[in-house]
Amino acid sequence: MKKTIALVTGGFTGESVISLQSAEVIDKNIDREKFDVYKIIITPESWYYVDDNAVKHSVDKNDFSLTVQNHVVRFDGVFIGLHGSPGEDGKLQGYFDMIGIPYTSCDAATSAITMNKGYTKAIVDGVKDLYVAKSAMLFENSPEAAVQITESLKLPLFVKPNNGGSSIGMSKVKTAEELPAALERAFKEGSQVLVEEFIGGREFTIGVYKGKEGIQVLPATEIVSSKEFFDFEAKYTAGITDEITPGRMTEEELSRVQKIVTDAYTKLNCSGVVRIDYILENETDHFYFIEVNTVPGQTEGSLIPQQVRAAGRTIQDFYTELLEMILP
């Protein structure tokens, strides 16, 4: 018997555009022989489903149901394809926990913690063979903050919103004079800012998920950008970045990173599929943690679909496994 799935997309932040693109790919690749799918769009103003006749149906938030042509639709599970708030920061997860509907992402606590880059670094610090760059967290922007940063950290630096995604508001700072403008840009995206020392090396990202055979690691992708770093434009504009999947690592490095990211996934209490970004430092061959994305992009050009295909699987089969892991 088919299961009824809500594909949740949209959101409250600038990442909503990417969420809608991800949802198009997810919607196209969910197996319709096993699942009936309703795309639910969440905006600050309303939650709704648009049927084949372009009629908008509001979601009843009391139980997350729909009424379509006098028929009440209730969901067996939710595929979360919403980046940023409220789909990646734990708010939706807490709501679904309260009304008893399972979902494909990490739980509310892990989602909330991992949206905070500083807190996440503190948790993964201690995972064997995983390193974290020296950093400082700021809670307000002031001239004193810039002085404090230059006195405690070595240039160059990365300045990023502590609770943001898609590299929005992120800057690379090479001189002390550039720091105030970078801080101002980051603080426009949120009330907390993380400043990290730059680690010279090759950048990678790798998918990790919990499947029928336990925690599985997808082939890593090596990021080679023509820009200073993998920012929003580099992520979503064709031709700026080369994404090499599988990434160029030795057998020893590959074996080491698979163990590292499995341990990080476990320590963060992750569920579903996540994407962990890291740098392989040039001088030491150390793996440096950048961040974890608990609702990674699923657009046509996104990294997880690339890695799934590199693993010899179809996207449809992968989504089926993610859904079957949460359904009774």
TrEMBL record:
Classify the source by domain of life: Bacteria
Organism of this sequence = Pararcticibacter amylolyticus
Protein EC: 6.3.2.4
Q: What pathway is it annotated to?
A: Cell wall biogenesis; peptidoglycan biosynthesis
Cellular location(s): Cytoplasm
Binding residue positions for Mg(2+) 1: D277, E291
| Broad class of enzyme this protein falls into | ligase
Residue numbers annotated as active site: E15, S166, S302
Q: Extract the InterPro entries matched here.
A: ATP-grasp (IPR011761), ATP_grasp_subdomain_1 (IPR013815), D-Ala_lig_Van_CS (IPR000291), D_ala_D_ala (IPR005905), Dala_Dala_lig_C (IPR011095), Dala_Dala_lig_N (IPR011127), PreATP-grasp_dom_sf (IPR016185)
**What does the record give as the reaction this protein catalyses?**
2 D-alanine + ATP = D-alanyl-D-alanine + ADP + phosphate + H(+)
Please state what the protein is called: D-alanine--D-alanine ligase
GO MF, one term, reads: D-alanine-D-alanine ligase activity
Q: Where does Mg(2+) 2 bind?
A: E291, N293
Q: Which HAMAP family match?
A: Dala_Dala_lig (MF_00047)
Cellular component annotations (GO), alphabetically ordered: cytoplasm
User: What function is annotated for this protein?
Assistant: Cell wall formation.
